[in-house]
Design goal:
By secondary structure, this protein is mainly α. The protein has eight helices and no strands. The chain starts with 43 loop residues before the first helix and ends with a helix.
Length: 182
């Protein structure tokens, strides 16, 4: 027995009115399930870029407070006679210093620290801070044997490291005194 294939006649189109005609297919909107909206960070770098402005603002405040605090702290140690740098200061001076000099320098550092913390008159604070910090580099020029081991400027002693770190303090002072006001 053989089976014959069934053939179905073609369907005749049913006439429709324009109101009942199906609308032509429209393009589907682009899929949003695979794309990430721009407001959602997709990587650590994106997250960092979103919070960086706030971190920067807080970082500048912390830098100003930190610099000011260091100046006040070191200054107070000179005023009360407990600064380990007092002997170095006196040894480097090209003139004989009385007992008044180190405490007076300490009071100046306290004033500079409070000035930094206040954030006032920054245009005037910067040259004073630069002069003070550059004055600390006198150790490298006036007493190089104390700052460098074996007369080699690449081999810093403990005193040399103590002095050279002031480059960072100087850079921080420039940043906090020159940042634009909001």
């Amino acid at each position: 027995m053989t089976v014959s294939p069934q053939v179905t006649p073609p369907a005749t189109p049913v006439p429709t009115s324009p109101a009942t005609q199906p609308s032509p297919p429209t393009a589907a909107p682009p899929s949003t399930t695979t794309a990430t909206p721009p407001s959602v960070p997709t990587s650590l770098g994106d997250r960092f870029e979103r919070i960086a402005p706030r971190l920067h603002a807080h970082g500048l405040t912390m830098l100003r407070a930190g610099l000011g605090g260091v100046f006040v702290w070191f200054g107070v140690l000179k005023v009360i006679g407990y600064s380990p740098a007092a002997a170095l200061v006196v040894a480097v001076l090209p003139f004989p210093a009385g007992e008044w000099f180190v405490p007076a320098l300490g009071w100046g550092e306290v004033a500079l620290g409070l000035w930094l913390v206040s954030g006032r008159a920054r245009a005037m604070a910067l040259p004073v801070l630069v002069a003070h910090l550059c004055g600390t580099f006198a150790v490298l020029v006036l007493t190089p044997g104390v700052a460098f081991a074996h007369a080699n400027p690449l081999l810093l002693t403990l005193v040399g490291e103590f002095v050279v770190k002031n480059v960072v303090l100087l850079a921080g002072a420039v940043v906090v005194t020159t940042r634009p006001r909001r």
